[in-house]
Amino acid sequence: MRIEQMPGYEYPVLAYWLEYWHEANKWQIIEYKLLPDGMLKWYKQYYEVESGCIKSSCFDIKNDALAYVNYENSHISSRVATLKLSEIEKNSIELKIEKAIDAKRRLMYEEELMLTAAINKYKNAQRPNLEDIILPEKEENFKNDLFNQLQEMPYLRMALVRAGTKYGRLCCIKV
Question: By Cβ atoms counted within 10 A, which residue in 12, 18, 101, 171 is the most buried?
Answer without folding.
Answer: 18
